[in-house]
Design goal:
By secondary structure, the protein is an alpha+beta fold. The protein folds into 3 domains: 3-38; 44-104, Trypsin Inhibitor V, Chain A (2-Layer Sandwich), CATH 3.30.10.20; 110-290, no CATH class. Helix content is 26%, strand content 28%.
């Protein structure tokens, strides 16, 4: 029997072969289309654009699309400077990827000054941030109530409801109260600048000198050292300045910082227990974080 006769006798075999061939052709076409449009295997490192200005951007030959999603007004900074990018530099992307940017605003936005009088310092700082403003310097005066007495902007009293530039620093005059006038220095290592400043002010302390060790991307800055250090004891006078040192979070062993923080808390609880029992902690029992610096991080 000839081949033609065989296929004529068994037409289902012909149909099966045709279907198999068509499936292979379709599969090959699908892979070609995916490779062309999805660019399978073609990935490139995201360029670093933080610190440059939007009018200086180029797509690097990758057809990148830069999209501005937020802007922050900074009084001493020209508008259009890139503060943050997503995805971060170094991550792998494909051609035509969208890069989302946060930049400095060209014009200041307005914020309404809240009424902070008679509020605790912590609540006042929270109210300021909710309004788009920031706490500045705390000045303490003799008054039986440990609350905000006056709110100032650039040395002058500012009334509630006044329109101000968003992000402005508002100074507070605060009563010392009838207590000891001392507070606990918060543990700040691992925090961002914004969070560290908020915690300092909320503790009735001031932000001292800030040191940025070779940081170019402020969105990646974290505290790696502070002075005074955290002890867990209420022994620091109101208004004392807390000095901060920042580094890029990529160079810090975050797990190690967490371990240190937990150990520091345990040491503080142990010393507190000794003091409650009327005992005086020995030098060897003091928290190691009172005695060391965190330069190695």
């Amino acid at each position: 029997m000839s081949r033609i006769g065989f296929f004529q006798k068994h037409p289902w075999i012909v149909h099966a072969l045709i279907a198999l061939a068509a499936s292979l052709v379709i599969l090959i076409l699908v892979f070609i289309i995916l490779k062309h449009y999805g660019r399978v295997g073609q990935e490139y490192k995201t360029p670093y654009v933080v610190g440059t200005y939007i009018d200086e951007l180029d797509d690097g030959g990758l057809g990148l699309q830069y999209i501005i999603i937020d802007s922050i007004y900074q009084p001493n900074q020209r508008g259009g400077m890139i503060l943050k990018q997503d995805p971060d530099s170094g991550s792998y992307i494909k051609r035509g990827r969208k890069i989302y940017l946060t930049i400095t605003a060209f014009n200041p936005e307005n914020a309404s000054m809240p009424d902070l009088r008679s509020l605790s310092v912590r609540n006042a700082i929270s109210q300021l941030e909710n309004a788009g403003l920031h706490g500045g310097k705390l000045t303490f005066v003799n008054d039986p109530h440990h609350v905000v007495i006056e709110q100032r902007y650039k040395g002058r009293t500012v009334s509630p409801g006044r329109q101000m530039e968003k992000g402005a620093l508002v100074d507070l005059v605060v009563g010392r109260g009838t207590g000891s006038g001392q507070t606990i220095v918060p543990y700040l290592v691992g925090m961002s600048p914004i969070k560290a400043r908020r915690n300092i002010l909320s503790a009735s302390l001031n932000v001292g000198a800030e040191h940025y060790d070779g940081i170019t991307d402020m969105s990646r800055a974290i505290v790696y050292k502070q002075s005074p250090s955290y002890t867990g004891r209420s022994e620091t006078e109101y208004g004392v300045g807390v000095e901060l040192w920042y580094c890029d979070k990529s160079v810090v062993a975050m797990e190690e910082l967490e371990r240190m923080k937990q150990r520091q808390i345990e040491d503080s609880l142990r010393m507190l227990e000794l003091m409650i029992n009327g005992e005086t902690p020995q030098e060897s029992e003091k928290s190691p974080y009172d005695l060391i610096q965190l330069d190695e991080f």
